[in-house]
Amino acid sequence: MSTLDAAHFHNDEAARKMIEGLRWPNGPVCNHCGETQRRYPTKREGRFRCGNPECRKDFTATTGTVMESSKVALHKWLTAFYMMCSSKKGVSAHQIHRTLGVTYKTAWFMAHRIREAMREGGLVPPMGGEGEIVEADETYFGKTEEPHVSAQRRGRPYTRSSGPRDKRAIISLVERGGRVRSFHPGVADAHNVAGIVRDNIARETRLMTDESRLYIKVGIEFSSHETVKHSVKEYARGDVNTNSVEGYFSIFKRGMRGVYQHCKEKHLHRYLAEYDFRYNHRVKLGYNDMDRTLEAIRGINGKRLTYQGTH
Ligand SMILES: [Zn+2]
Question: pLDDT digit of tens for each residue in the chain (311 aa)?
Fold first, then answer.
């Protein structure tokens, strides 16, 4: 039996039970007030009523999640989660539309909500640590729709340059042998890059970058800052290299070009969240397709995305 033969991919009821089990391992919790004891089932399967006299609201396992108020059956949602979690390069809205028999528009919206579930939320611990290596690098993907002005340039007349300022900047931090975290700052200037590096990497870490000037100043704050000089064709010196982050960029770009092609700049952070998520739950870190799918479903909570929010 293949993974996709399981009941939760074909039956709405089974899908709901699975989501309930993931969200409420100790029984239903009221999403409105957090009540865990006083609640009772209503006549409608899957719908509970809160027994807290201050609340009394109804809730289901998808209240307050990316699936809230969606008319799409839950087993189709789970199938879309599985499709996006098991593919290497991503899944087009067109493919979801054809596989699930939902409209293209619905498929597109589902894909964005699934990306939202994949996004790391809340307080995330710093990357790296003592003896650990974090590689940082920037790349550019697609043209910007509005010219970005760096903090240093603010207040001065903007002159359009033909350099990377016209392109969408991406900064990624990759723990050697571990996780990635990607960002889309307006401009990859020293100020923005330093902020990202400082906020996300533990100071005890060995920071590794190429010879870019963007990291020189902030690099001093770390246990060490080692660089490879790509300009003189130096790609590794001992364990000093940026191969992990470059490998990540190549997966991202190959997928974006092959599957998504057109991506509006305001959605770029969600595509990054999707590629980050798959990388952070890759086979090498012990996740199979279904583990990865379950992890994404665990991320549905508290990530309501309105239709307006995606356009
Ligand atoms: Zn309640």
Answer: 788 899 999 999 999 999 999 999 999 999 999 999 999 999 999 999 999 999 999 999 999 898 988 999 999 999 999 999 999 899 999 999 999 999 999 999 999 999 999 998 777 899 999 999 999 999 999 888 766 666 555 554 444 443 466 889 999 999 999 999 999 998 889 999 999 999 999 999 999 999 999 999 999 999 999 999 888 888 888 999 999 999 999 999 999 998 887 788 889 999 999 999 999 999 999 999 999 999 999 998 866 555 444 44
Q: How many domains does one find in the chain?
A: 1
Backbone CA torsion sign across 277, 283, 285, 290 = positive
| 238 domain residue, yes or no | yes
What is the 59 CA–ligand 1 centroid distance (Å)? 8
| Ligand 1 centroid from CA 103, angstroms | 35
55 C-alpha to ligand 1 centroid (Å): 5
147 is a domain residue: yes
Please give the distance, rounded to the nearest whole angstrom, from the Cα atom of residue 30 to the centre of ligand 1. Answer: 5
**Domain-located, residue 214:** yes
Q: Is 240 inside any structural domain?
A: yes
As a whole number of angstroms, the distance between CA 23 and CA 29 comes to 9
CA of 29 to the centre of ligand 1 (A): 8
Question: How many angstroms is it from 27 CA to the middle of ligand 1?
Answer: 14
CATH code of residue 191: 3.30.420.10
> Whole domain around residue 138: which residue ranges?
133-280
Q: How far is the CA of 21 from the centre of ligand 1 (A)?
A: 19
Tell me the β-bridge partners of 228.
Answer: 210
Dist. CA 38 → ligand 1 center (Å): 9
What are the E-state strand segments in the chain? Answer: 39-41, 48-50, 58-59, 133-143, 167-175, 180-183, 206-210, 224-228, 236-237, 240-241
